[in-house]
Amino acid sequence: MMVHAEFRYNGHALTHTEGDGLLEKLEGSSEPWMREHALFIRRWLSDETHIEVQTSGSTGEPKVWSLPKEMFAASAAITGRHFACLNGTRALLCLPTSFIAGKMMLVRAMTLGWALDAIAPTSHPLSVIEDAYDFAAFTPMQLTGLSEREMRRFAAIRTVIVGGAAVPESLRHKLTARGNEVFETYGMAETLSHVAVRRFAEQEVPFEALAGVRFRADDEGRLVITIKHLGELEVQTQDVVALIDDRHFYYRGRFDSMINSGGIKLFPEAIEKKLQGTLTIPFYIGSEVDAVLGQRVVLYVESAETPDERQLLGRCREVLTGYEVPKAVRSQYPFERTASGKIKRINK
Predict the structure, then answer these.
(1) How do beta strands 115-118 and 90-93 pair?
(2) What is the pLDDT of residues 83-126, one digit of tens each?
(3) Are 100 and 193 in contact (CB under 8 A)?
């Protein structure tokens, strides 16, 4: 696959001589992330026509998809046009390339001609950078608990996209109006990264489709995505949405985590959103079987000690109503998490 002549990786071009030396250096590194970068770049430059991606389960059981390189390049081009980040863009890569978000940052840089600075994918990447950038992608975890210095570094990035997990309300408010453009993204491995974005704002705004992307909802309210630049690919998700039109939606929650309590359909994600800022201990909403309700809402907290159920439920009642209020509190330590940091819920 061709690489744009202006592409730079930490200042190095991928010309025959300079590129081979760069990749050999990365391959010989003791840092796994550097070796991963070299492996992906070699595969991109090879005669292989397809690249495998590991799905996360957004459309069902996790699996491996093999997709043409042309689709990766088409997705990169859409992102470049949407954010006005074409050749010469200075970008920061601080995401692991074991996931689609990191892979696509490399693809965008190679195909669009970006000057890419790659650093270790740590939980605090802003603590080690000094320069300003045109574009960068982060997970919500990487933007949590920023120091004043890190906040200044964040504000010096012209366009920021945040994805990979739900964005806490507290973080969205904290990073709004910092002088740069910050967007929450919606997408998955099956769609080769994001297909919709929404700007960070004081009030919740809907996700908006990128060019060539259209939405509809099935009979259960689950989002179905059609992507023109991926050959009219249609992706059936397990995400329940409030569809506004074929280009806009509000995310409501996962169909497979929905709780049916007394005939009322509840989404843990929506309840958790209301509780953000009220509970300081790590938590999530799950369910248990109930003889009367069918399922009852349960608050899980990350604690090795017995929680103060009365106090926690009292705080919940301050912001929740009716069936949303948990009927019990359970402690779990530690929470089981995926490789990308998402909590694995317990639903009984």
Answers:
(1) parallel
(2) 999 999 999 999 999 889 999 999 999 999 999 999 999 999 99
(3) yes
Q: How far apart are CA 45 and CA 311, in angstroms?
A: 58
Confidence of residue 288 (pLDDT cuts 50, 70, 90): very high
Topology of domain 8-254 in CATH is Rossmann fold (3.40.50)
Name the CATH architecture for the domain at 258-332: 2-Layer Sandwich (3.30)
Domain ranges of the chain: 8-254, 258-332
Report the distance separating Cα 295 and Cα 263, nearest Å. 9
Nearest CA-CA partner of 73 in 229, 215, 190, 213: 229
Q: What is the pTM of this model?
A: 0.88
Question: For residues 335 and 300, what is the distance between their CA atoms, to the nearest angstrom?
Answer: 9
As a 3-state breakdown, the chain gives helix, strand, coil percent values, each rounded to 5, of: 30, 35, 35
Rounded Cα distance between 135 and 199, Å, is 15
